[in-house]
Structures are given as C-alpha cells and as structure tokens.
Design a protein that fits this description.
The complex is a heterodimer of chains A (about 200) and B (about 220). Chain A has about 200 residues and is of the alpha/beta class. Chain A is about 35% helix and about 30% strand. In chain B, α2 crosses α6. Chain B is elongated and about 70 Å long. The chains are: A alpha/beta (about 200), B alpha/beta (about 220).
C-alpha cells in the first residue's frame, strides 16, 4: 500500500469521525403512545389539530430540527380519549359537530434542547411548552392553559445524537400526557365550568 | 525457565486487579418466601424521578434476566409502565406506600393491576459512579503507523437499593441494598489493553440471586 493511499484513508477516517460528532441532526419522532388508564368524564369534546400542529417541526438550535407533529397528534388523541367520553378530532373549528360541549385547540409554543456540550451533564434534555385553548362550543373562552413538559435520556453514552434527542422528545411527550391527565380537571376555570354545567 | 513465573504474575495481576467487592444488606420481616398465585407476576422498575441520575435501564433488564429462574414470572418493565400509563411515569410514579395506597383506591387503576395479574413491584433505585480517575494515555497515528502509550485507572462504584411492594395488601415486603466497587485499568502498550472490573454484573448477579430468595425457597 502506498503512503498516499494511507494518507487518503486517514483523512477520510478523520472526516467521518468529525462528521459523526457534529453536523446537522434531523430528528423524526416516530412513536405510538399507549392508551391512558383513566375514568373519562361524561363530556363531548372536539379537539382541533390544525395543520401547523400536525406538521410541527421544531428548530431548538440552528443545526437541530425535531419533527414531533405525527407523534404529538397520536399522544394527544389518546390522552383526550382518557379524559372525555366522546372525542372527535378536526383540522379546523368549522368542522366541530353539533352537541359538542368543549373545544380544545392545542399548540406548541416552544421546544428547547440541552445537549451534553451545553450542560456538561451526560444527558440530552428536551422541554416542550404547550398551550391549550379551551372554549365552549359557542366560542366562549374558558382558559388558555400553559403546559410545559420535560424529558431526558438516561445517559448519552454510546447513543447517537439523533437517537438521544428522539428519546428525550418521546419522554417529554409522555410527560405531557401524564400532566394533562393529572391536572386538567384541577384547572380552576375548567372546574368552575364543570360545576356550572353539572358535570362534577 | 523464568518466563512461567512472569506469565503467572501477569495473569494474577490481570485477574486480581480487576475484581469487584460486592456487599449485600438485606431486610425482610420473615424468612418465609412471599405468597403468590400461579398466574401472578412481579415487575421490576427503575426509579427515574431524580434530577441528577436515573436508574440504569440495562441494570433493570439484567435483574429481570437474573430473576428468570424464579417460580414467579416477571413482567417486563416497559410493558407494565405502558399498561398503566400514565401512573408510573417519572412525574406520577408513587414514591412511597401512602401514595401507592391513594393510587390503588382508584378503581380503574386497581382493575388494570388485577387484569395484568401484577402482585409485586420491585423498585430499583441507584446509580453507577466513576471516581478517582488517575494516569494518562496518549494515542498517536501517523503515515507509518500508530499506537497508544500510558496508563490509566479509575474506580467504579455501584449502589442500588431494591424495595419490594405487595400490591395485594399494599405493604413493603423487604429491602436489599447492594454496594459494589472495583478498579479498572487501561494499559497502553502500542495497543490499549483494558482490564475492566465487573462491578455492574457482580451487583446484578448478587441482587438478582438475593431477590430470587424472596420468591422461592433457597436451594443449596
């Protein structure tokens, strides 16, 4: 083997090693979430997943994009089916059927990412800030509920950057489902509405 | 011939230097094996609610494998967490018996636990730490070849506590604490030679063996 071919091989290996350490990460979160174990209340709810929500792709830092659109629609659909007896999902408010009592429009306000190079911890962390616009069928606002969710990887050892970010995003989405189930009926304005509608 | 004692000394150093010391402490109110029905299962779950560490998923899986010989069947951790979603997520998982009792008062949670035939939950809480890193090693590569030269050593410490909860009467049935530590070495003589201490596997085997005795008579 000639020296020049060895040099070429070394340069190629070094380039590969450097590319593996940095570069752009396009993360597609593909995950089916479990059904929720809860006792649904006797409420007919319509959930609006608009196009922006269905195809949501976050860019928390310049070289990282996280596509959580499909995964979050799956998660929220299942979580709301745990909360309410009757749930319909729509792309916009005009499709809401008659007899609906609550209309909820979830949206993503922001996604933040922390990597081991930012935090000097051996974990990747993802924060997703959701907002739920809760209205009556007549369009009267009940609340605009801010809901942060958090997820992290166990550790980043021997995990690729893309896999680690995806894993942290999945944990954050699961956390969002848990927070919804735990806290939705504790929102004071939702509680008052249920009291008024005799749904308690 | 002088090579034989030298060879034996190197082998002894290799085997002796990488050993791990494992201590197991156990608390249980009775030496009798725990009761369970033919269809009932145990689930082994890692604690994930601490901010600075998370119980190693591989370690939880390893304990599950060590439990395979036991008479009670083991439900995989993720399957149990999914079946009871969202009640065993880091945000919602019960940290103590009072919270577990409160959860089990909800008929939909109790029904699901009964449907899955889960009788015991074993919580694993702990982590692995690397301490006392010493020495240095440098690796170089050039057109004519390369190699690593130097010496490095570090200590690994594993501490894990297992707590057994009975979901039928909502009581604690025992605790096992495992501490395992050992020193690993990396010697660079052209090629790096790792001499790794098996702290994690020792802790897993020790804890798994001890846990099994809760569910069956110990065979000698």
């Amino acid at each position: 083997m000639s020296i020049s071919s060895v040099k070429t091989g070394l340069i190629a290996a070094a380039s590969l090693a450097l590319a593996a350490c940095g570069g752009t990460a396009n993360v597609m979160v593909e995950q089916q979430f479990p059904n929720v174990v809860f006792e649904p209340r006797d409420i007919r709810a319509a959930i609006i997943f608009d196009d922006a929500f269905r195809t949501y792709k976050a860019t928390p830092v310049e070289d990282v994009s996280i596509d959580i659109g499909t995964a979050q629609v799956d998660l929220w659909s299942k979580a709301f089916r745990g909360l309410f007896n009757e749930v319909t999902t729509h792309q916009d408010r005009t499709q809401v059927p008659e007899g609906t009592e609550l209309v909820i429009t979830p949206s993503v306000l922001e996604v933040q990412l922390s990597t081991p190079s930012d935090s000097y911890l051996n974990v990747y962390e993802v924060w997703i800030k959701f907002n739920l616009d809760i209205e009556t069928a007549d369009g009267e606002a009940i609340d605009s509920w801010f809901m942060p969710a958090y997820g992290k990887t166990p550790d980043s050892f021997m995990t690729s950057r893309t896999e680690a970010i995806e894993e942290a995003a999945i944990v954050a989405l699961r956390d969002a489902g848990a927070k919804l189930i735990l806290d939705f009926y504790r929102i004071p304005s939702v509680y008052s509405w249920m009291e008024q509608e005799q749904k308690l | 011939m002088k090579t034989q004692p030298t060879f034996l000394a190197i082998v002894s150093l290799y085997l002796g230097g990488c050993a791990a010391t494992t201590t197991i402490d156990e608390f249980r109110p009775s030496t009798q094996p725990l009761d369970y029905g033919a269809e009932e299962k145990v689930v082994i779950i890692g604690r994930r609610d601490a901010g600075h560490y998370e119980t190693d998923r591989d370690f939880v899986g390893c304990i599950g494998k060590e439990m395979r010989g036991a008479e009670i069947s083991v439900l995989p951790e993720q399957e149990f967490i999914d079946k009871l979603y969202p009640w065993f997520e880091p945000r919602t998982a019960p940290k103590g018996l009072p919270r577990l009792k409160r959860l089990m008062e909800e008929p939909f949670i109790r029904d699901r636990v009964n449907t899955e035939d889960v009788r015991y939950v074993v919580w694993l809480d702990g982590t692995t730490e690397t301490q006392g890193h010493m020495g240095s090693m440098s690796c170089t590569m050039g057109p004519t070849g390369g190699g690593c030269f130097g010496y490095s050593q570090w200590d690994k410490v594993v501490f894990i506590e297992a707590i057994i909860w009975d979901l039928a009467d909502l009581t604690e049935k025992g605790r096992i604490r495992v501490d395992s530590e050992g020193t690993s070495y990396l010697i660079g003589v052209v090629a790096p030679i790792p001499l790794l201490s098996p702290v994690k596997s020792d802790a897993c085997k020790g804890l798994g063996r001890q846990l099994k005795t809760f569910f069956a008579e110990e065979s000698s």
